[in-house]
Amino acid sequence: MITEIFKEPIFQIKLNENLDALIEFSNKLKKGRIKSNVGGFQSEDLALNLPELKSLNNEILKHGDNLIREHLAIEKNIYINNLWLNKNYYKDYNEQHVHLNCVLSGVFYIKTNKQSGDLQFFRNNMLDIWVPDHNIKNFNHYNSTSWAFKPEDNYLFLFPAWLNHSVKPNLSQEERISISFNISIEK
Predict the structure, then answer these.
(1) Which residue in 166, 9, 8, 142 sits closest to 88, CA to CA?
(2) What is the pTM of this model?
(3) Which helix or strand (DSSP H or E) is residue 109 part of?
(4) What is the distance of C-alpha 64 from the center of its chain?
């Protein structure tokens, strides 16, 4: 008998947001900051009540509530802590990091292509020290030290905030545009 322990849920779903309107909105943002981004543009936290973000915020809360209740077994209400926009240009990326003071994090992709850089997650233990990758014949959920997802336009990803993640370099000449956010549970 095998008992699978310490699973990490990554939720992904295709939405139906107005991407043209969100791209137009992204072009108006000027004030930025540096956090995990290496190059590119990351906006300051955006006001959660902006009309351009209303539909997306509703989708984030709906799917975040589902993930919290069904997979993490938390029976509390949730809210979006903060939300910001990212633009990554040629060779820009986001370093490996986690998000503090929240329970879920996520990203919504507005503009991508096949070379715009994968969303990558990392195992939170030191498996690679005991079993280096060169010893593994076929990678799977038990022996992989990282897992990557290819971003696509209009896709929402939700994941535990404690899960190490990064975004690989954008190897396209087109910008990658996304909105990232954090979700907390009410006390």
Answers:
(1) 166
(2) 0.95
(3) strand 104-111
(4) 12
